[in-house]
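Section 3.1 - Work completed
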Amino acid sequence: MVRHPRDYSWSSYGVHARGAADVVVAIHPLYRALGRTALERQEAYRALFRPALDAGFVDALRAATNGGWALGNARFKQRIAKVLKRRVTPLPKGRPRKASQDRRQLNLL
């Protein structure tokens, strides 16, 4: 991973944050809504990257990405699992517990 999106070669950050030309990048309506002028949009876009991401979120994102799992709340994960017709969360770690056997002695007399 890179420290900042501007450091990633395939990022659209240069187009959106600095106005660099790139024929591959299409300007999305959500980006256009960030400001009335190109300079306003670029500043608003750069502001999105100023706050540091929460470490817990980064860990969850990394685990989901590396495992191929869905990232979101329980309802979102259920909907994605239904659409994909597969598990979208990892199984619990470790072996399943054995069924507990009742070891009490039965008095038949």
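Second construct:
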Amino acid sequence: MTSFERNADIVHMTSPAPLFAHVDGWQWRPDQIWYDQTQMFKTVSYYVQQLYATNKGTHVLQLTMDKRPVANLEGQNGLFASACYDKDTNEVIIKVANTSKTMQPIRLNLKGLTGATTAQTITLSHTGMDDENSILRPELITPKAGSIDVVSDKKQTTINDQLPSMSFRIYRIK
């Protein structure tokens, strides 16, 4: 999805298909909302789609690692990332996915951004590599809100973070 966002001038809409599946009668696993006769649960894929839809900006920003897009290229260790600016909320929104099985230190250099002291975060992760939401545990893996310090000095503004393994995190900076 980071590639969709980086190419927002070309990709105007995405949609999962199919969206719904009955827990006792399904044909494939990519479905995002599962249900039985009385209950339902949303998958991690659903939450990722929801987070992209509710944290979109109005302008795509360049986000690079060693002057290359962050798209799990050589030396990027399973990281994917994109950034945008929302003129309506006056926020920079950065999305980072860590698809590796190890925690990753990341440093976000926010060139041209001044005055911010904290960033709001939304994180989707879980420690069990085979864990997933289910009818019995519908909220095992859900987005969690938090915050992180933004460090500013005369030379640069940065966020230093430890991104959990197999996680997706959004940073919103005013």
